[in-house]
């Protein structure tokens, strides 16, 4: 190998990319902050001395299509989170029948039942009139016989039978045989905002259920029973307690109780809890048909409940769309449409709806959907809202629309929900992490998964994005999975070259051809186990390789020292290979293209119309294979999309020693007798500019958390009360000791103290979780200061301190915990901020 000036080339390489047939728009200079389609150039890598013409993929800098309608200032969300962060206010409605009495505590169960029936009689009048034709004959027969309607207080009458307490329920004895034999007319969802039995207001956590016998709408509690119905061919169907009672009496009268009535007797070990804090199967073995309801069950803490599957944990139906959340026009007030029309929603999106549609995937997770014009492409834009509360980043998927597409990409909803479930086990997505699908996805088995990436230099104009942090999902082909696992940066940059985006596109194209085939002959076979992935190329966070004319600089961040030591200790004695990160300050980057004959070629992708001054590399290899008799000081060359430097054994020892001591080291490459063509390779330690938590703000006072390190928390225990959960998700270290002499014992002690503070905070607010969430304070912050001169805390939400009543509850619990650790003058001050979220209990 001969030394060359960077960017270097191994052979004469031709670009395999074709020029795009773009419209003849004059090229404009792309700025790093907003790069669009056609913003990159792919060149064959050659020595700087050789003149080669660049291969422009697409010079198109087409002007944006019509911009999305800008929201007015009054619609701009404030710094704090709105009540939409809580998804939907769950407001408990007192039983309407109790409002008109002076002494509601003295009402009996039967009296409350009668009052509730009268209050909702008006809502059932339409349904009653629709069914009058079917029951008119029976009513006339009853009238001719002179039968009087039964009253609820009469002995032997079921007080829960609503059909006996209203004109609708004044049925003849013969109607019990008709009930359940003919399919009823269903009351439309839009006409039933509350349960027609108990008056509970419907939300997406308190769902509507139609009785299969009478067709009216009830909550889960009032329609928790089942009965074999004739119009269902003898199969069991959900019925309300009133119809169940009527059907039971009818079968008893005809002697058919044994044949048809199942009543769904409870299993002693099974308990099913619903969102309205009722236990559906807690019934007496002797009376299996009587539901547990009303004042008989008081709200209990959910911490001791056995796990059970709730329908509110997954609201995605097998067919159709999930429920949709719509605003009523009143700030913070929303309604839920459970079975939205896909055709109408698609038509609404195509007509230019300015705001995204909001789908409810479960009680804690929303999906925002909008059709956008992104870089002259019509795309679906799907984003999550609710992942932050689980310690997960929000997710954005841009999907290019298919020709004549009229249906929603519903598989994305299931993927979002799976990400949510994975977070419960501590599995989170990060930059360049891979999520694989188990089966067919978006209409093809070739769609293998999503590679998640951060947006860097790409344009984000016109996209409805969630709050930071968030990641974009790149749809990968099944043939590309090996590279996505072993070396995702190579695949990301290769996508950028294919779609003329620097460094990579953010949108996805379905049914595309793979960019890589069989692994074949590549240097990565020496560095990565492609069979079992027992070892891969180690990467140091923030490490970059800058290739310039006659100089190459390998920049190692000082905060990556421990990662580097780990890589050195695991590396071969004669070879040190490290993966690099994408360099945002570079104007171009090496990429690796696989040709049709499975050969790998080196090319460079760069920002269009900008001169190439600094070229990034994906990895570097230091090898001690150079012999002193070769006549070289050292040799450097480009290998695929990385840099290889060959040195002598003695030089390798010096390099390893310098890295362990955190000292810079320079390698002179070239022949001993040709000093004018020599170049320099520098290993340089740098103070990396921390870019973590960009766009993140404190819920206490709106303080920016950018460049402040933090740790995610995935605790196994949860703190639950009144149907709500409070979860500790993250801790920010605003100020902490940087003394390296402090041992691991000090760190462990601080961790234990932090956990105790978090636990005390959760327990202190448990009785107030419901009220806090209803007031829009679902995200809470606790800032603790530990200093020899000052020890204290502040707590807040939505950019403001918590009200006084919450502070008094916190003060009595937190103060003893914070003061439990003694402070000395030698202790450095510590300031940390803990983040908590209040969620719905859906498990």
Automatic annotation (TrEMBL):
UniProtKB keywords: Cytoplasm, Endosome, Membrane, Metal-binding, Phosphoprotein, Zinc, Zinc-finger
Q: What does the entry give for GO biological process?
A: endosomal transport
The protein's matches in CDD domains, at most eight in alphabetical order, are given as: FYVE_endofin
- The Polar residues compositionally biased stretches are 30-56, 280-289
A GO molecular function assigned to this protein is: 1-phosphatidylinositol binding
Q: Where is this region: Disordered?
A: 1-167, 280-307
Q: Does the keyword Repeat apply?
A: no
- Localization (cell): Cytoplasm; Early endosome membrane
- Tell me, what's a Pfam family for it? FYVE
Q: Where is the composition biased (Basic and acidic residues)?
A: 108-117
Supply one GO CC term from the record.
Answer: cytosol
User: Is Membrane tagged as a keyword?
Assistant: yes
User: Where's the FYVE-type domain?
Assistant: 189-248
User: InterPro entries under this entry?
Assistant: SARA-like_C (IPR022557), Znf_FYVE (IPR000306), Znf_FYVE-rel (IPR017455), Znf_FYVE_PHD (IPR011011), Znf_RING/FYVE/PHD (IPR013083)
> What protein name is recorded for this chain?
Zinc finger, FYVE domain containing 9b
- Gene source species: Oryzias sinensis (Chinese medaka)
């Amino acid at each position: 190998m001969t030394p060359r000036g960077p960017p270097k080339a191994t052979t004469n390489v031709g670009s395999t990319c074709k020029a795009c047939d773009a419209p003849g728009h004059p090229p404009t200079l792309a700025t790093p902050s907003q790069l669009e389609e056609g913003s990159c150039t792919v060149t064959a890598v050659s020595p700087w001395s050789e003149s080669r013409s660049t291969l422009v993929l697409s010079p198109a800098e087409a002007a944006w299509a019509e911009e999305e309608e800008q929201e007015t200032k009054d619609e701009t969300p404030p710094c704090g989170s709105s009540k939409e962060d809580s998804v939907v206010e769950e407001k408990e409605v007192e039983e309407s029948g109790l409002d008109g009495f002076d002494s509601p505590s003295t009402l009996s169960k039967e009296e409350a039942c009668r009052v509730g029936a009268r209050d909702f009689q008006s809502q059932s009048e339409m349904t009653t009139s629709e069914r009058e034709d079917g029951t008119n004959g029976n009513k006339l027969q009853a009238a001719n016989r002179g039968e009087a309607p039964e009253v609820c207080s009469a002995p032997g009458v079921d007080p829960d039978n609503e059909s006996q307490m209203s004109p609708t329920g004044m049925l003849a004895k013969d109607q019990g045989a008709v009930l359940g034999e003919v399919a009823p007319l269903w009351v439309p969802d839009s006409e039933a905002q509350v349960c027609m039995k108990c008056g509970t207001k419907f939300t997406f956590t308190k769902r509507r259920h139609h009785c299969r016998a009478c067709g009216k709408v009830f909550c889960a509690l009032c329609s928790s029973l089942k009965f074999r119905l004739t119009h269902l061919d003898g199969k069991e169907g959900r019925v309300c307690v009133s119809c169940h009672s009527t059907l039971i009496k009818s079968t008893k009268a005809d002697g058919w109780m044994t044949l048809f009535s199942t009543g769904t007797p409870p299993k002693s070990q099974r308990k099913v809890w619903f969102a309205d804090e009722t236990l559906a199967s807690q019934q007496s073995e002797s009376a299996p048909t009587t539901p547990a309801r009303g004042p008989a069950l008081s709200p209990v803490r959910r911490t001791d409940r056995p796990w059970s599957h709730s329908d509110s944990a997954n609201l995605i139906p097998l067919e159709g769309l999930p429920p949709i959340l719509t605003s009523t026009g009143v700030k913070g007030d929303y309604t839920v449409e459970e079975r939205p029309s896909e055709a109408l929603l698609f038509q609404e999106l195509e007509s230019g709806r300015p705001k995204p549609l909001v789908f409810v995937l479960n009680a804690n997770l929303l999906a925002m959907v909008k059709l956008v014009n992104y870089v002259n492409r019509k795309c679906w834009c799907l984003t999550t809202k609710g992942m932050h509360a689980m310690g997960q980043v929000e997710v954005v998927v841009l999907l290019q629309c298919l020709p004549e597409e009229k249906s929603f990409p519903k598989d994305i909803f299931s993927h979002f929900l799976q990400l949510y479930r994975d977070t419960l086990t501590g599995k989170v997505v990060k930059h360049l992490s891979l999520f694989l699908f188990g089966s067919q996805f978006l209409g093809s088995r070739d769609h293998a998964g999503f590679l998640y990436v951060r947006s860097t230099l790409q344009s984000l104009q016109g996209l409805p994005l969630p709050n930071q942090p968030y990641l974009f999902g790149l749809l990968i082909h099944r043939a590309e999975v090996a590279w996505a696992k072993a070396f995702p940066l190579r695949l990301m940059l290769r996508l950028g070259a294919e779609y003329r985006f620097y460094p990579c596109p953010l949108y996805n194209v379905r049914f595309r051809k793979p960019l890589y085939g069989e692994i074949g002959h590549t240097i990565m076979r020496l560095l990565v186990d492609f069979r079992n992935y027992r070892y891969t190329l180690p990467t140091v966070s923030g490490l970059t390789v800058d290739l310039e004319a006659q100089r190459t600089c390998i920049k190692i961040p000082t905060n990556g020292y421990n990662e580097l030591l780990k890589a050195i200790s695991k590396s071969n004695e004669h070879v040190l290979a490290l993966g690099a990160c994408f360099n945002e300050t570079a104007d171009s980057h090496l990429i690796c293209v696989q040709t049709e004959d499975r050969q790998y070629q080196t090319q460079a992708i760069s920002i269009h119309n900008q001169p190439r001054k600094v070229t990034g590399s994906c990895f570097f290899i230091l090898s001690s294979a150079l012999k002193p008799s070769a006549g070289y000081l050292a040799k450097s060359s480009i290998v695929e999309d990385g840099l290889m430097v060959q040195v002598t054994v003695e030089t390798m020892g010096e390099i390893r020693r310098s890295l362990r001591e955190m000292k810079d080291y320079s390698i002179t490459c070239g022949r001993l007798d040709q000093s004018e063509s020599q170049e320099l390779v520098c290993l340089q330690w740098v103070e990396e500019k921390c870019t973590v938590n960009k766009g993140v703000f404190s819920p206490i006072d709106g303080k920016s958390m950018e460049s402040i390190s933090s740790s995610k928390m995935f605790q196994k225990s949860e703190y639950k009360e009144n149907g709500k959960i409070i979860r500790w998700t993250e801790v920010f270290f605003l100020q902490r000791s940087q003394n390296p002499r402090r041992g691991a014992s000090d760190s462990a002690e601080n961790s234990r103290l932090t956990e105790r503070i978090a636990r005390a905070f959760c327990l202190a607010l448990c009785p107030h979780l419901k009220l806090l969430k209803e007031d829009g304070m679902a995200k809470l912050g606790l800032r603790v200061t530990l200093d020899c001169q000052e020890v204290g805390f502040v707590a807040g939400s939505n950019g403001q301190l918590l009200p006084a009543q919450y502070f008094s509850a916190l003060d009595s619990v937190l103060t003893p915990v914070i003061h439990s650790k003694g402070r000395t003058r030698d202790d450095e001050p510590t300031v940390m901020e803990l983040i908590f979220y209040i969620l719905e209990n859906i498990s």
